[in-house]
Amino acid sequence: MKKNKIKKDDGRYLIYYTFEENQEEKKDKEKEDK
Amino acid sequence: MSELRWDPIRRDWVITATHRQNRTFKPPKDYCPLCPTEEGGFPTEVPAEDYDLVVFENKFPSLQSPPPEPAVEGSNLYQVDLAQGICEVVLFTSQHDGVMSKEPLSRFQKLVKVWKDRYRELGSKDFIDYVYIFENKGEEVGVTLQHPHGQIYAYPFIPPIVARELNSSRKHYEKEGKCLFCRVLEEEKEDGRRIILENDSFTAMIPFFARYTYEVHIYANRHLPSFADFTEKEERDLAAILKALIMKYDSLFDFVFPYIMAIHQKPTDGSGEEYSHFHIEFYPPYRTENKLKYLAGSESGAGTFINGSLPEEKAEELRRVSLQGCDFK
């Protein structure tokens, strides 16, 4: 999981969370797609 | 202006937050502040053309850091304190019309990771005693923005419902040497009639003392005080049981089921390790397909809920709702 914290124009913070799909999540996704 | 006002009769804090009266109220779809900002479009809260999950400080917070000056002075009887804390909004998906029960398991896994991260980060601040993660879902519970999202209130005190739970559990622990929630779970598993879903790490059940017709509690199977103690498997298992429960809710009457979701866990003031037990409570307002439960005289004025149904029968009803092959184990 990666976090990118930025400051908005009005001073409030915002955090973008991004994720890399791991092997287990790929298997879960394949199971769901079936 | 906002402040904490102490009620000396009920012995709890009330937050006044007058700036919240004009917060965004049911904007049309092309004016959603929680959607990504389209190129050339009006700016939303999220200055990106797409996102996975986002957390930001609420524009209309009930608690702030640094806190504003109180609007009134207190007295010996009527204490006033600063409304210091942090209020965040958690965006579950960038899709305005997203329906969580139709999202893949991975979305719930990501959400659990984000919640864990927020609990740890907000809880590490010395002025925060309790990190309350919750979701208001559906117009029926007063939701003002449709886009799938939840909130976090990081309070400078332990809020009263949680404090009362923990007080009960602490007394039980002092007397019996065991967490009260662990004991409740033991009794529910032995009985079985109110269990809806189980996996290795969590159990979803309608509690014996349910106040709402379809109220569900999800308990950690082991004595697990908070998100900070979760293993990776527990993260995955919570995501799976959450998705399964929400699928059941949405399939029950074939509409997206509104609810309030409240996550209860260990305070972040250093207390409660032995008697705090991670659990999630769902309060859906529908008591039948087309009738809502209102908090009327007995509930609001006397604090005594009246449930017009039997938890055992409603649990059976929810168990029978098909998960269409979803694997929650």
Q: Could you write a compact summary of the structure shown?
A:
Chain A has one helix at residues 23-33; strands at residues 2-7, 13-18.
Low-confidence stretches of chain A: none
Number of helices of chain B: 6
Shape of chain A: rod-shaped
- In terms of quaternary structure, the protein is heterodimer
**Straight-line distance between termini of chain A:** 26 Å
Order of helices and strands of chain B: EEEEEHEEHHEEEHEEHH
How much helical structure, as a percent, in the residues of chain B? 25-40%
* Share in helix of chain A: 25-40%
- The count of strands of chain A amounts to 2
Uncertain runs of chain B: none
Secondary-structure-based class of chain A equals alpha+beta
Class from helix and strand fractions of chain B: alpha+beta
For the largest beta-sheet of chain A, the strand count, sense and barrel status come to: 2 strands, antiparallel
Note the beta-strand portion of chain B.
15-25%
Compute the CA-based radius of gyration of chain A.
16 Å
- Listing every helix as H and every strand as E from the N terminus to the C terminus, the arrangement of chain A reads EEH
Strand order of the largest sheet of chain B: 3-5-7-6-11-12-10-9-8
Side-by-side strand order of the widest sheet of chain A? 1-2
Describe the protein's architecture and organization:
The complex is a heterodimer of chains A (34) and B (329). Chain A is of the alpha+beta class. Chain A is 32% helix and 35% strand. Chain A is built from 1 helix and 2 strands; from the N terminus they run E-E-H. Chain A has one helix spanning 23-33, and strands at 2-7, 13-18. Chain A has a two-stranded antiparallel ribbon. In chain A, a hairpin with a 5-residue loop joins strand 1 (2-7) and strand 2 (13-18). The longest helix of chain A has 11 residues, at 23-33. Chain A is rod-shaped. Chain B has 329 residues and is α+β, with helices and mostly antiparallel strands. Chain B contains 6 helices and 12 strands. Chain B has a 9-stranded antiparallel sheet with strand order 3-5-7-6-11-12-10-9-8, sandwiched between helices. In chain B, strands 2-1-4 form a 3-stranded antiparallel sheet, with no helix packed on it. The longest helix of chain B has 21 residues, at 232-252. Chains A and B meet through strand 2 and helix 1 of A and strand 3 and helix 1 of B. Strand 2 (13-18) of chain A pairs antiparallel with strand 3 of chain B.
